[in-house]
Amino acid sequence: MTVRPLSLRDLVLIRLGVAVNLVIGQIVAALLLPVYLDSVGTILVAALVGPRAAIAAGLVSQVLAAVLSGNFTWLPFGLVQIVIALYAAGAARLGLFRRIATAVPAGVGMGFVAASCSAPISYFVFGGVTAGGVTVVTTVLRALGAPLSVAVASASYSTDLLDKAIACALVSVVLRSLPRTLAARFPALAR
Amino acid sequence: MSAHPLVALERATFSYPGAARPALADVTFAVAAGEVVVVTGAAGAGASTLLLVATGFAPRVVGGTLSGTRRTAARRCGVVFARPWTQLTGLCSTVRDEVAFGPASLGLPRDEVLAAAARALDRLGIAHLADREPAHLSGGELQRVVVAAALALGPEVLALDDPAAELDPEAADALYAALPGLASAGTAVLLATPDLERAAGVATRAVEMRDGRIVAEGAPARVLAGTAVARLARAAGCPAPWPVDVAALLVRADMGRGR
Amino acid sequence: MIGYIPGRSPLHRAHPYTTLALATGLLLGAFALTRPAEVWLLVAAAAVYAAVGGVLRSSARTALLLSLPIWALLFVVHGLLGPEPRAAVGPVAVSTAGVERALVLGGRITAIVLGFLTALSTASPHRLVEAMSARGVPFGRTFLLASTLTVLPRMRERAAQILEAQQCRGLRLGGSPLARLRALGPLALPLVLGALAEVDEQVLALDARGAAGGGRRTPLDPPPDSPAQRVLRWSVLALVVAAYTWKFWRLRG
Q1: Contacts of A8 in chain B (CB under 8 A)
Q2: CB distance from C204 to chain B under 8 Å?
Q3: Do C184 and A33 make contact, defined as CB atoms within 8 angstroms?
Q4: What whole-number distance in Å separates Cα of residue B258 and Cα of residue B254?
Q5: In 3-state terms, what secondary structure has residue C182?
Q6: Neighbours of chain A (3+ CB pairs under 8 A)
Q7: pLDDT value, residue B234
Q8: Which residues are CB-contacts of B207 (< 8 A; sequence separation ≥ 6)?
Q9: Same domain for C144 and C204?
Q10: In a designed cystine with B148, which of A10, B124, B216, B223 is the match (CB 3.0 to 4.6 A)?
Q11: B129 touches chain C (CB under 8 A)
Q12: Chains touching chain C at 3 or more Cβ pairs under 8 angstroms?
């Protein structure tokens, strides 16, 4: 893989990915789906451009999400965004986004990996509490008697698996819906 | 047409990446300083592509393959598209900063940058908008900011691709009215538009394209009167002035310029 | 309220890097401190920081609103469900160790949120962009941080329009989880594909304005810096390093 500086086109695509990450929550909320889909843009950029651009998209999304909502506790989870970006780029390279049948399992795998990274962050940095749906699940499990580490881990995993599976399926549909001339503009897709 | 073209294409054939047919096929075209050339044709005929290839943005920025020759004496070319919003940098909080972005990116000294921005704002008649935020402007005002921003870099060739598509009639008139002034200052203006009525009022030369080829070129009166729109209007027996009777319109426009 | 609040305080007039350095210092320092007393001293420092910026009331109010849910959950997860020993507080038995942990974690979050809200309120994005390009930060970084904020409102508007348009065409937002999942496609696809179709124009427009040049952009209005501020920034870094050194020293000893 050649390492060249990010072109203007890469930057515009990263910006698009970040915007998608930050806006798609509006749609998810209107549909009352129990997921965030806040990595769809990152995964898309990974498939269209490559890993470095996807990492940039993930990190910028994390910073801007914190800035816009005031919830700066999300900042340390930027590490998870890097992991998601690298996984997505790898999955794209393997052609896993070409069909939904392969994208969904890839998403489940991504959710597993992402949760494995975010659970320790959540546990060590915040004692398992960052606000959001995950923490509610944690609380319930804790009340049922589970040790804190297990509660945090279970909460992270269940939401992440679903979230990333849907995200990868959506990206797969987007890539298959690209008009041929538009798809030709992204050399990473041809691989 | 002058003997010293700013841009000259010879037998140029251009295909976008992944496209089945070439967007430009065997096109020979040139433009000189002070001209306002209107390029017209149906959607997909190649008018926008001709602008991009002539100004050198294709294939450099959009990819694709170009065969034939392109010769240019222009150091810099500018381009303006239909949607004002997509052409803002997003980095600037005032109109002045947005217009100054180009010269500032070249690393010119601060005074020169601000002077270039002020000149461009004056030429478009929007100096009064200098301290306003781009986000609060109307479409028409914003599009003039975009043109000013393109002009601030002092391009020898300025390509405008359907610049008034999203503007209301008054704003569109104001934009087109500014074009002859740019040409007389020495810029070569390339204009791709389906708006034959307004184009007829400003063009010094017209080009009609079909399927990527130039099918007619020359005086606006002759070329535009031969377009499908004009023929249809005449076939329907419609009287002037609307649908456009281009020849009559040009006579009126000439009288207007003579005022 | 989250966002820039115009003003004339020392923080407003300071170089944006100074304001951010102080907020980052609070963020990093928060994780170095492990005892309730220390953490709440940091919260007091954050409050002083906000007061200097003249935004104490608005920042404190917003910080409180944002962290209340976290405090509630912290209390439940650590206080009520924490380990032994437990102490009786009225009718409830709370874990003393849990409460202490909740105070530390809650204090950290409060200090961090207060610090960054202050930074956001006193450093205008425009000045930050000018400061960054004056320092030679590559165009790409300033572009991603600043221009994304500018395109967001339009994208949100478009998402809302697509929502309305598809509903007019008969798309139902409610129903079974599977139905709602299927509705995701008609809503998300136009948004993403529409944005992708604009990329070429955006790249061309930026390229035509010389954004791809790579050279240094002339700053038009660079925020003034001063030796005193530089010293202050380096001091913050030194303090953070000292705090972590102390933390690991204590852990070892």
Answers
A1: 61
A2: yes
A3: yes
A4: 6
A5: helix
A6: B, C
A7: 74
A8: B29, B37, B38, B39, B40, B50, B214, B216, B217, B223
A9: yes
A10: B124
A11: no
A12: A, B
Q: Give CA–CA dist A65/C156, Å, rounded.
A: 14
Q: Which domains does chain B possess?
A: 1-75+156-226 (3.40.50.300), 83-154 (no CATH)
- Does residue C218 lie within any of the structural domains? no
Q: What is the tens place of the pLDDT at every residue in B16-31?
A: 988 889 999 999 999 9
Q: Do A184 and B62 touch (CB under 8 A)?
A: no
Which chain C residue has its CA at the smallest distance from A28's CA?
C184
The answer to whether residue A121 neighbours chain C at the CB level (below 8 Å) is no
pLDDT tens, position by position, A48-88: 999 999 999 999 999 998 888 877 777 888 899 999 999 99
Among the partner-chain residues C126, C139, C218, the one whose CB lies closest to the CB of B93 is C126
The alpha-carbon gap from C93 to the nearest alpha carbon of chain B, in Å, equals: 55
Cis peptide before B241 (omega within 30 of 0): yes
A108-166 confidence digits (pLDDT tens): 999 999 988 887 887 776 666 655 555 666 667 767 766 777 766 777 788 889 999 99
Which phi and psi (to 5°) does residue B24 adopt? Answer: -125, 130
Query: Which residue's entry shows tokens 């494995």?
Result: A116
- Supply the pTM of this predicted model: 0.86
Q: Hey, where are the domains in chain A?
A: 8-190
pLDDT at residue B2, as a whole number: 52
Residues C146, C110 within the same domain: no
Query: Structural domain tally of chain C?
Result: 2
When CB atoms are compared, the residue of C76, C148, C155 closest to A139 is: C76
Residue C155 covered by a domain: yes
- The total of other beta-carbon atoms located within 10 Å of residue A124's CB is 12
Fold exhibited by the domain A8-190:
Arp2/3 complex 21 kDa subunit ARPC3 (1.10.1760)
Whether residues C55 and C156 share a domain: the answer is: no
Residues C28 and C119 in one domain: yes
Q: Do A185 and B17 touch (CB under 8 A)?
A: yes
Residue span of the structural domain in which C156 resides: 140-208
Q: Which residue of A has its CA nearest to C185?
A: A170
